[in-house]
Every structure is written in structure tokens, then in C-alpha cells.
């Protein structure tokens, strides 16, 4: 088969193309993704099937035409070499570019990328605790994969409220453009593409909410017919299988489908499990379906060597970010229940709740009481709404029993008691609310609505409570209607995103954001807010952690102030239940300082199950002291504690602070994370210098575009020409300039300021940074590089002259690439074939040669064209085949040893896959052993075929990935000689 590799130049249909990607096709050939180079197709991307093309000509390196470079200081040649260097795909496991994103880099942020890059295919669960920056960690890994040619197509799936935030973070910090497919974005796409076309194929990089995908059956067909290089599922606990569910939810089924549509899969969640082996196994199966044979019975050894998980808590990395995480200030505000509230408590306890028309004292009755009590602990308004619904339900029955009529009578008494509280104009009897008002108005609080940089987030579980608070807080704190807003899950995706965006803008009038727990996952609410109020306490330690993480997170500039509101009552039963909630708050603080994961105290690892367990505490009649003792025992029992088992799964050290992160080798220490950064040597001082030199060269002969540069600011501004405009249409609409005028800045500090300024913008269209980041991953920089690569024309290489060479020395700069069977580069080598006189060629590393010959931007004076140079070029043209032959011999020898190592790795991997397959088949036989023979046979046949298919597909993928093509691809990049060469080698 014709050797075709990414980076090769090919002539197809009489036009020259740069091959960007090579994929196997169903017809046995290959699908080529190519960028046009020659004039007619420049700026266009095309797909070619090798089986359908009459002729594909891969240009012979030995026949490369050597041409003089007439540019000042050989700028064209140096730019050409630098552009190729930037496209040389790294084949190692180091960090090359991701660390340069616009962020304050911390060592721990590199660990997920380092761990994933060691894998044959990068699939990882990033399970760091709330506030550590999982979005940035995923951005670093994505950047590294893009550098390796494995990130052209990207799909991010997240929650509705997170769409814009995630999209902005990746664009402004990493120049990764994600087109937002929310309700407005989808409508926009529909207007741009023909009917029945797959929207996921129209945009290479997009972001969509999990709810949009699961609720629209049309998208399932689109997903089944699309493929990505990278898929990211944010808040992935939402797609895990639940132990309480007999089948898979729609979200879980969707995740299984997505897991098959990409080589790379990243799962992000601070709470990635519900405490059950089956739930966690479902996430592991998304990453690697071969890892676990029995989802109900497995150990860390089943997948630890695969490096699938990384998890750290704030305490684990505190020594790295001591100046970034501010110590939390916790304030506990107590209020004595008013007489009206005491009356409501008594009325609630007197309700004889019924089931199936009968009253029967016991656990079920108590559960009903606790459920209604939970709404009362939130607010009288919430309790009143629930009471009215219960009354309407019972009064609507035509065959109500005496017990139900008795319950209705008691519920009406409760309703009257709640009306006194809920409808009181000044809410004087609502003690918790009054205590909050006193605090907000006090000098000790220090909060004032007049200060736009000091905003307030208030959480409540109940929407009725949020609306009640909006009405009363607006009046009591003298807030205007646009200064206080409510965010809850019943809002449309665009409404949620807009509200979060407004809260992060300095010029927006909003001062108070009232949130339901839909805002507790992932959202950045800390930009102008360090105060968070729990108006009602969550009944889940995991929700405590999620809520507080909105303001107590990486990047918070002020000490987070967390406020809890407690009600003190003389009612013994109510007082005991409220005290249990106080204990939850205490355990959350304790976990923050010592354990890391607060869910260890309840040991169920799911917010809903935690709420059930807290309800059971209240129903069972346990005293607060007994509840606390049980929670402490659960957290301290190292022998049976499921939390310890889960920490083993995550690669931590049971009962100790884990300073060692899980990896494929099990040992990635903090100290060597920064040491894993390997920035390639550049021929230019900076990206800014490269871009300025390229624009100067490209506009030298004819006007390519209008542009300007500001050296002091490191800013380049340009008006996009037509071919660049076409390319930029793939960007999100929000970052496309209406006048096609773009400004790029190479200074990360100034970019960080631009991001902050944009966040404070009043208008939505201004909330994206007006400056773009000038670095090699930006699409405009990629366009510049492609323009430079076509400067010398088809199948040509420039000749440079250097006084540092010997008079009779010849040198050819060569690049060789060895791809795998999928067309992905595995081995990339830059070498310089040198010889003196008529001797044999020997190879020298490019970096060494560039240093001794002076090849760098502005490093060599160009002596211009001459007859002597023509003679030198003719001599070097004759010597070129021998230089290429020397390079071919070298790379074939290196490929042999490289392939042998890969073959050994392949054999080990295939052997491990066979062991895992045998184990799964054995486990299947055990699971079906007690079934009837007829049933057993049918189920065994069905499930065994599934196992065989999964392993066969994985084997084929591994084989194609770890097997090299038989012949390397070689490209002649440039030739170098002494200006006074004596042509001894002619």
C-alpha cells in the first residue's frame, strides 16, 4: 500500500495537498484529510478515499528541487523550518504546550495529562475535589493531544448551566474553539446546514448539554454516525449507572454510546461514584470495557495499571498552591424560633399521616413527617406549598377514609400556622430570615449592596423559598428588581447561562444570586463573590462540598466566607432533628481540614442516598449524639470502610495524605511534574517574533492582509483575508469579529487581564475577550504556518549559506516520520546529513547543527543570488539522493529497534487482553451457573458474543496503533553550504 503519512505532501487531482490526517476506511483503503496548498485549493480542506482516486503522487524526497532563498537574513527559510518544527508531532510523554495556557500553572494540574499520555490511548477519569480546576486540567491534556495530531474533532458534554463557562474557559485560555449547541446554537446551525445533515459533522469542535442529547432521539442517530478524536463528559457522575436502578438510565445509555465514538475519553467529576462497586465500574467500563469482569466484585488491581483514574483533595496539593487557596471563614448564625414557628412545629408533629387510606404509626408515617419537615426547615413558603398539595390530593379523592379526613383536618391546622409565617408582610416571625437580615446589615458583615465587587450567593433547595427570598430581600435590603435574581433547574439553558454570565460581570447591577442546587455543580461564582449563605442546610455532605466550592475554589482572591443559618427551638423532637443537620455541617468542616472527602462520614457517596440516610436518622429516633458517634465510627473504621476501598481505587493511600498520584506506573510525584515540561527549541525569540516575521514576509511581494504590530505590547492586529475568513467560520460566533479585524497578544498576563475585563463587560457580545491569545494553537497562527509552508512552491527546498560551515561542507536538513497503521505519527526525527568534500554523509541532530551553523531568526546574512550560488546548488542537487539514502538507512535502523520495542509492548498488551477476556468468560459462567440449562445457554451465547466483540475491536485498535508502517516517510527541508564552496563533492 502507498505510504501516506500526516505531514506528507501529495498531488491529488493535479493539485498539491498537505495531508493532515489518515484514517482507515470501510473499503479497505484510507480516508485522507487534506489542506490545499496550491493556488486553486489554498485554504480549503478536502477528504479523499484512496480506493477511489486514480492517482495519488507522494513526492519523492530525492527529487526535491533546491532553490535559492532571496529573503533578508533567510527569513523565508527560517520561517519554513520553524513552521515545520511546530507541526512535528511529539511522540513522547512530556508536556510541550499545555502548560503555556493563560493560567497560573500549578504542578498538580499537569498530572492528569502526564498520566493519560502514558496510555496507549488516553482515557481518564479526572476526579479531583471541588474547586481544583478540572476544566483547566482537561484543557492541558486536550492541548497536548492536539499537538500530537489527535485532537482535530472534539465534543464536550456538560450541564446546561455550564455550557458558556466551559466554552469560554477553553477558548480564552487554550484557544480551543467549541461551538455551543444550546437551544439558540442548534437553531443557528440548522439555518446554516442543509436539512437532514449531521450537525456534529458540520463543526469539528462543539459543546452540548447532556440533557439536550438525552431528550432528543434525533441526536442518537447523529451520534452513531459521527466520530471524534476527543470526547469530554463533564460532571460524569450524572451518566454513571446507579445501584438503585435495575436498568440503565437514558444518560447512562448515551454515555455508553459516546464512549465508542472516540479514541480519547475524559470524564470529569468531583463526586464520581455513589459508593457502589457497580456504579464505579460503569464509569471504568466507559473508559475501558476490558478492565472489569464483574461489576459487583472487583479490586483495584483489575485496572490500577491502566492509569484510568486520578483523584486529589485540597489537602493533598495545598503545599503547591498555598498562596492560591484562601482559608475559609465559617460563620454560624443561630436564631431562637418565634412563637409562630413553635406553633407550626407542633402542628406538623400532630398530623396523622396516612398511607393507602389508613393511619398507622411507624416508620412510614415518620418518613412522611420528615419529608414535610424538610420543607419547613427551608421556609414556611416551601412548607405551605407542600401542605396545600397534600390537602388537594386528599380532598380530591371521592372515597376518602375517616383517617384521611382526619389528616386533612390536621393539615388545615398546619396550613393556618404556616400562613401566619408565610404571609406576614414583614416576616417578623420567620426567625432564621430575621437573623440573616441582622447579619447582612451589621458592620461585622461588611457587605453592602452598593459594592459591585462584593456579591452574595444564597443557596436553598426549594424554589418556593428562593422566590420568597427574592420578594422579601429586595424590599428589606432596598434592592432594585435587577439586583437580585433566582437561578434554578426549571429555567431554559440559555437563561441559566445568561444569569451566570451576568453574575461574573462587574458592570452588571446584580448583587444577590439566589440558587437552587442546580448551581452547585461546576459553576464559577467566585469572581466578585466570596460570601455564600446556606439559607437551608443541605441533607447531604456532598452537596455541602459542591455548594461551598462555588466560591471556595482555585482563583478566589478573598477569604471565602461561608454562612450557615440555624434555628433553635424548645420542641424536643424538632430540636434533635435540627441538631443532626448541625452535625453534618461540623463534619463538612472536619473533612475539609483532615479527610478530604466528607462523604466518608455517611459512606453512601450519593447525594440522594445521603439525604435518605439523614432522614433515616431522624425517623429512627437516634439522638444527635448517637448520630455523630455512628458517623465518626464509619469514617474511622479502616477495616470495613468503603471509602478506604474507593481511595484504593483512586490510587491514594488509605488513611494518609496521598502525595503520590495514580498513574500507569503508580508513581507520579509532585516533584517531577514540572520536570516533565519539554519546550522544543525555537528558531525565534517568541511567538510574537515568529508571527511578525511571517506577516512581513507574506506581505512582501503582494498584499496578503492589512496588519500592524506593537512591540511593547506584543500585540498583532490584522484584517483577515478571504481564505482566513473561511477558516474562522468554524469558530464560535461569539469570537468571530464582525469586521474581520482581530488583535492577538502574546503576553499571558495581559491576556489574563483581558479575560477579566471581558467578564466584567455589560453586554453579552463584549463578554468574550477582545484580545486573542497569540500562541501556536490559535487558528490564525496555524493559518500563518500553512501560508509559510507554501512559500517555496511544490516539492522545493531552500538553500542557505553560512560562513560557520567549512568551505567544502554540504548539509541537508531532513525530517523523517514513521506512522502507525492508522496513519498517526509514532516516530519523528529531524537530522542533518553532512559531509565534507566527497566523503560519506553522516548525521547530526538538527538542534546541534542549527546552533553551530547560526540558523535562527536574523542569524545569517543573505548574500543574494549569484552565478557561484547556482553552481553550488547544482552540485548539491546531485548529492541530494545520497543524503536521502543515508537518512533512510538511519531511520530504518531506528525503526527496527523502535518496532521491536513496540512489538514487545503489543505482545504484552495482547496477552493481557487475552487474560482479561478469559476472566470475563469465566465470570460469565459463574454468574449463569445456577440458571436453567435452556436459559443459561441462550444468555451465555448472547453475552459471550458481546465480550468477544469488545475484545476483538480492542485488539484491532491496539494492533493498528502499535504497528508501524514498513517504510518511513522522508522530507527534504533545506540545504546549507558555505558561500565559498569549492564543489569538491560535485
Taken from the alpha-carbon principal axes, the silhouette is elongated
- Largest sheet features: 7 strands, parallel
Cα distance spanning the termini: 36 Å
Radius of gyration: 33 Å
Give helix % range: 40-55%
Number of domains: 6
The number of E-state strands comes to 32
β content, as a range?
15-25%
Please, how many helices? 30
Low-confidence stretches: 638-644, 651-670
Strand order of the largest sheet: 9-10-8-11-12-7-13
Short précis:
This protein is α/β, with parallel strands linked by helices and 986 residues long.
Give your account of this protein's structure.
The protein has 986 residues and is an alpha/beta fold. It folds into six domains: 1-59, SH3 type barrels (Roll); 61-97 and 793-986, no CATH class; 104-312 and 659-673, Tandem AAA-ATPase domain (Rossmann fold, 3-Layer(aba) Sandwich); 329-336 and 423-641, 3-Layer(aba) Sandwich (Rossmann fold); 339-422, no CATH class; 687-775, no CATH class. The strands form seven sheets. It has a seven-stranded parallel beta sheet with strand order 9-10-8-11-12-7-13, with helices on both faces. A six-stranded mixed beta sheet has the order 6-28-32-29-30-31. A hairpin with a 2-residue loop joins strand 1 and strand 2 (15-24). Helix 3 crosses helix 4. Residues 638-644 and 651-670 have low confidence and may be disordered.
Amino acid at each position: 500500500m502507498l505510504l501516506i503519512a500526516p505531514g506528507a505532501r501529495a498531488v491529488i487531482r493535479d493539485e498539491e495537498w498537505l495531508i493532515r490526517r489518515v484514517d482507515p476506511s470501510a473499503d479497505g483503503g484510507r480516508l485522507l484529510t487534506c489542506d490545499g496548498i496550491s493556488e486553486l485549493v489554498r485554504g480549503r480542506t478536502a477528504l479523499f478515499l484512496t480506493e477511489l482516486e486514480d492517482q495519488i503522487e507522494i513526492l519523492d524526497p530525492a527529487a526535491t528541487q533546491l532553490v535559492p532563498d532571496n529573503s533578508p537574513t533567510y527569513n523565508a527559510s527560517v520561517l519554513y523550518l520553524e513552521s515545520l518544527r511546530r507541526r512535528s508531532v511529539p511522540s513522547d510523554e512530556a508536556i510541550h504546550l499545555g502548560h503555556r495556557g493563560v493560567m497560573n500553572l500549578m504542578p498538580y494540574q499537569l498530572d492528569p495529562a502526564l498520566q493519560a499520555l502514558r496510555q496507549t490511548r488516553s482515557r481518564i477519569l479526572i476526579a479531583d475535589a471541588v474547586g481544583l480546576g478540572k476544566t483547566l486540567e482537561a484543557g492541558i491534556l486536550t492541548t497536548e493531544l492536539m499537538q500530537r495530531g489527535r485532537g482535530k474533532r472534539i465534543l464536550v458534554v456538560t450541564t446546561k448551566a455550564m455550557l458558556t463557562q466551559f466554552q469560554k474557559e477553553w477558548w480564552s485560555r487554550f484557544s480551543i474553539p467549541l461551538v455551543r449547541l444550546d437551544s439558540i446554537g442548534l437553531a443557528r446551525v440548522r439555518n446554516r446546514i442543509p436539512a437532514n445533515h449531521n450537525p456534529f459533522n458540520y463543526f469539528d469542535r462543539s459543546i452540548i448539554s447532556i440533557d439536550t442529547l438525552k431528550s432528543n432521539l434525533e441526536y442518537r442517530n447523529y451520534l452513531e454516525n459521527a466520530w471524534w478524536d476527543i470526547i469530554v463528559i463533564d460532571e460524569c457522575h450524572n451518566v454513571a449507572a446507579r445501584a438503585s436502578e435495575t436498568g440503565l438510565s437514558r444518560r447512562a445509555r448515551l454515555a455508553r454510546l459516546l464512549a465508542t465514538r472516540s479514541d480519547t475519553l475524559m470524564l470529569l467529576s468531583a463526586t464520581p461514584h455513589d459508593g457502589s462497586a457497580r456504579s464505579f465500574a460503569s464509569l471504568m467500563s466507559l473508559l475501558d470495557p476490558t478492565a472489569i469482569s464483574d461489576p459487583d466484585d472487583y479490586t483495584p488491581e483489575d485496572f490500577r495499571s491502566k492509569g484510568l483514574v486520578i483523584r486529589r483533595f485540597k489537602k493533598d496539593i495545598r503545599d503547591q498552591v498555598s498562596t492560591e487557596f484562601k482559608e475559609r471563614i465559617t460563620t454560624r448564625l443561630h436564631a431562637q424560633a418565634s412563637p409562630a414557628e413553635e406553633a407550626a412545629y407542633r402542628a406538623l408533629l400532630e398530623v396523622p399521616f396516612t398511607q393507602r387510606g389508613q393511619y398507622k404509626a411507624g416508620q412510614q408515617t415518620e418518613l412522611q413527617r420528615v419529608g414535610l419537615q424538610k420543607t419547613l426547615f427551608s421556609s414556611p413558603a416551601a412548607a405551605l406549598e407542600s401542605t396545600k398539595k397534600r390537602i388537594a390530593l386528599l380532598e380530591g379523592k371521592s372515597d376518602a377514609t375517616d383517617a384521611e379526613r382526619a389528616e386533612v383536618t390536621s393539615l388545615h391546622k398546619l396550613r393556618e400556622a404556616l400562613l401566619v409565617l408565610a404571609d406576614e408582610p414583614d416576616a417578623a416571625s420567620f426567625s432564621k430570615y430575621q437573623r440573616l437580615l441582622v447579619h447582612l446589615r451589621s458592620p461585622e458583615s461588611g457587605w453592602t449592596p452598593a459594592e459591585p465587587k462584593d456579591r452574595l450567593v444564597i443557596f436553598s433547595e426549594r424554589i418556593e423559598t428562593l422566590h420568597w427570598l427574592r420578594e422579601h430581600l429586595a424590599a428589606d435590603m432596598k434592592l432594585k428588581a435587577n439586583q437580585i435574581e433566582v437561578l434554578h433547574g426549571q429555567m431554559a439553558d440559555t437563561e441559566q447561562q445568561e444569569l451566570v454570565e451576568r453574575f461574573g460581570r462587574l458592570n452588571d447591577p446584580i448583587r444577590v444570586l439566589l440558587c437552587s442546587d442546580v448551581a452547585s455543580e461546576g459553576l464559577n461564582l467566585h469572581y466578585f463573590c466570596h460570601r455564600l449563605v446556606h439559607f437551608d442546610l443541605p441533607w447531604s455532605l456532598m452537596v455541602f462540598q459542591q455548594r461551598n466550592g462555588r466560591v471556595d475554589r482555585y482563583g478566589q482572591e478573598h477569604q471565602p466566607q461561608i454562612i450557615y443559618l440555624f434555628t433553635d427551638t424548645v420542641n424536643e423532637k424538632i430540636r434533635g432533628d435540627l441538631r443532626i443537620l448541625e452535625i453534618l455541617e461540623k463534619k463538612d468542616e472536619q473533612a475539609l481540614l483532615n479527610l478530604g472527602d466528607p462523604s466518608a462520614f455517611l459512606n453512601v457517596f450519593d447525594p440522594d442516598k445521603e439525604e435518605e440516610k439523614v432522614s433515616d436518622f431522624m425517623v429512627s429516633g437516634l439522638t444527635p449524639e448517637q448520630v455523630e458517634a455512628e458517623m465518626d465510627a464509619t469514617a474511622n473504621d479502616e477495616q470495613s470502610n468503603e471509602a478506604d476501598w474507593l481511595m484504593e481505587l483512586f490510587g491514594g493511600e488509605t488513611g494518609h495524605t496521598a502525595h503520590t498520584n495514580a498513574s500507569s506506573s503508580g508513581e507520579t510525584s509532585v516533584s517531577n511534574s514540572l520536570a516533565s515540561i519539554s519546550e522544543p527549541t525555537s528558531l525565534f525569540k517568541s511567538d510574537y517574533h515568529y508571527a511578525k516575521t511571517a506577516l512581513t514576509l507574506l506581505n512582501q511581494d503582494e498584499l496578503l492582509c492589512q496588519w500592524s504590530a506593537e512591540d511593547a505590547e506584543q500585540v498583532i492586529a490584522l484584517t483577515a483575508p478571504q481564505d482566513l475568513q473561511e477558516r474562522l467560520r468554524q469558530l464560535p460566533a461569539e469570537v468571530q469579529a464582525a469586521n474581520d479585524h482581530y488583535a492577538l497578544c502574546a503576553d499571558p498576563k495581559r491576556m489574563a487581564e483581558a479575560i477579566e475585563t471581558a467578564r466584567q463587560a455589560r453586554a453579552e457580545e463584549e463578554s468574550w475577550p477582545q484580545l486573542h491569545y497569540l500562541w501556536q494553537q490559535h487558528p490564525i497562527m496555524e493559518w500563518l504556518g500553512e501560508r509559510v509552508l507554501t512559500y517555496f512552491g511544490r516539492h522545493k527546498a531552500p538553500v542557505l549559506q553560512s560562513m560557520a560551515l567549512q568551505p567544502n561542507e554540504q548539509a541537508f536538513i531532513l525530517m523523517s516520520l514513521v506512522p502507525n497503521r492508522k496513519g498517526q505519527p509514532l516516530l519523528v526525527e529531524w537530522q542533518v546529513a553532512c559531509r565534507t568534500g566527497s566523503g560519506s554523509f553522516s548525521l547530526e541532530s538538527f538542534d546541534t547543527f542549527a546552533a553551530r551553523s547560526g540558523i535562527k531568526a536574523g542569524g545569517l546574512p543573505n548574500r543574494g543570488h549569484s552565478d557561484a550560488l547556482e553552481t553550488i546548488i547544482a552540485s548539491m542537487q546531485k548529492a541530494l539522493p545520497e543524503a536521502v539514502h543515508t537518512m533512510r538507512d538511519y531511520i530504518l535502523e531506528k525503526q527496527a529497534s523502535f518496532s521491536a520495542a513496540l512489538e514487545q509492548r503489543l505482545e504484552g498488551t495482547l496477552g493481557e487482553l487475552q487474560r482479561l477476556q478469559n476472566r470475563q468468560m469465566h465470570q460469565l459462567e459463574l454468574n449463569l451457573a445456577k440458571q436453567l440449562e435452556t436459559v443459561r445457554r441462550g444468555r451465555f451465547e448472547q453475552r459471550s458474543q458481546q465480550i468477544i466483540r469488545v475484545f476483538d475491536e480492542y485488539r484491532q485498535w491496539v494492533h493498528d496503533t502499535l504497528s508501524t508502517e514498513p517504510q518511513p516517510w522522508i522530507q527534504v527541508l533545506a540545504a546549507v553550504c558555505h558561500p565559498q564552496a569549492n564543489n569538491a563533492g560535485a
